[in-house]
Automatic annotation (TrEMBL):
SUPFAM superfamilies: alpha-helical ferredoxin. This is Epoxyqueuosine reductase. Pathway: tRNA modification; tRNA-queuosine biosynthesis. It comes from the Bacteria. The gene is queG. It comes from Chryseobacterium soli. The keyword Hydrolase does not apply.
């Protein structure tokens, strides 16, 4: 290892802290052998449902050197999105906390790019790409390898100091950096997430059948929501936080300080009756910069109609 590997690693972590990242860890850019077996099995079980894109770029998902030529290190970062205030669910449909505000893809990627520019001013030019849930990168695996947290029974990455309400991002680069070590698992015998899931999507510890997940049904699924979800959606119209909300480690979640993650005022004031009258025009106005635009107007209307029909008395 070159003499700068430790120095640069320290600099990057210090810079990440200054740019508002919650955690930063480093792994050697290598083939994810264990994850290859797990991903293959997950796909064979059809746990990805209609997310056919998960079958693409299998090798790239497992080897960052195929994504960034000459890459030697994967820098994993986490960015807190836990809200200062929760949107009331009284007479309202529910929306996942990560979608309360501006689209995290844009916000976190902008911060990452600014951070890399500063790093290049101090270190010199280096080859890199930044990723925020935007390419075939197994983010959770790299974050686990870099010691940011462990994979919980709900398949989310969990950190002792801050729970799991954070986004993951990566800088894959050609710098040789001192790598970190994995942390230990602290779920113990707790089964709260498994027992709380209304659709039994957590089929075994750390394995989620995506096709049974409320988040999948309300965001990823493009066809009609299956009848098997009826009476089990618990008023979630976009995403689902149940398995995170019940996790004991999330009692340590602290509000984020990112102004662009302040809850959308429209979301705070809407009630069920108003959601049912949603128009394309209003959808475009409310969700112009939101992750909710991913489901499109037709998708959100479908979700609301499904919730309405599920709750109507027979």
């Amino acid at each position: 290892m070159n003499s700068n590997a430790e120095k640069y690693a320290r600099l990057i972590k210090s810079k990440a802290d200054r740019f508002g990242f919650q955690s930063c860890g480093i792994s050697k850019a290598d083939f994810l052998e264990e994850d290859a077996r797990n991903l293959e099995k997950w796909l064979q079980n059809n746990f990805h449902g209609e997310m056919k894109y998960m079958e693409n770029h299998f090798d790239k998902r497992l080897d960052p050197r195929l994504l960034v030529e000459g890459s030697r290190s994967v820098i994993s970062l986490s960015y807190n999105y836990f809200p200062k205030e929760k949107i009331s669910t009284l007479e309202n449909y529910k929306i996942s906390k990560y979608a309360y505000a501006e689209d995290y893809h844009e916000v976190v990627k902008e911060i990452l790019r600014d951070m890399v520019l500063e790093l290049q001013e101090e270190i010199g030019e280096f080859g890199f790409r930044v990723f925020v849930d935007s390419a075939p990168v197994l983010e959770r695996s790299w974050a686990r390898k870099s010691g940011i947290g462990w994979v919980g029974k709900n398949a989310n990455l969990i950190t002792k100091q801050s729970g799991s309400f954070y986004f993951l991002a990566e800088i894959i680069c050609d710098l040789e950096l001192a790598a970190d070590h994995e942390t230990t698992d602290h779920c113990g015998t707790c089964r709260k997430c498994i027992d709380a899931c209304p659709t039994d999507a957590i089929v075994s510890e750390k394995i989620v059948d995506g096709s049974k997940c409320i988040s999948y049904a309300t965001i990823e699924l493009k066809s009609e929501i299956p009848d098997s979800f009826k009476g089990k959606m618990e008023d979630w119209m976009f995403g689902c936080d149940i398995c995170q909300d019940v996790c004991p480690w999330n009692r340590f979640s602290a509000p984020n300080i990112q102004s662009r993650f302040m809850p959308n005022e429209h979301l705070k004031n809407f009630k069920k009756g108003e959601w049912k009258e949603l128009t394309q025009e209003l959808f475009s106005e409310i969700f112009r910069k939101s992750p909710v635009k991913r489901t499109k107007f037709a998708g959100l209307k479908r979700n609301i109609e499904f919730l309405k029909s599920s709750s109507d008395p027979l």
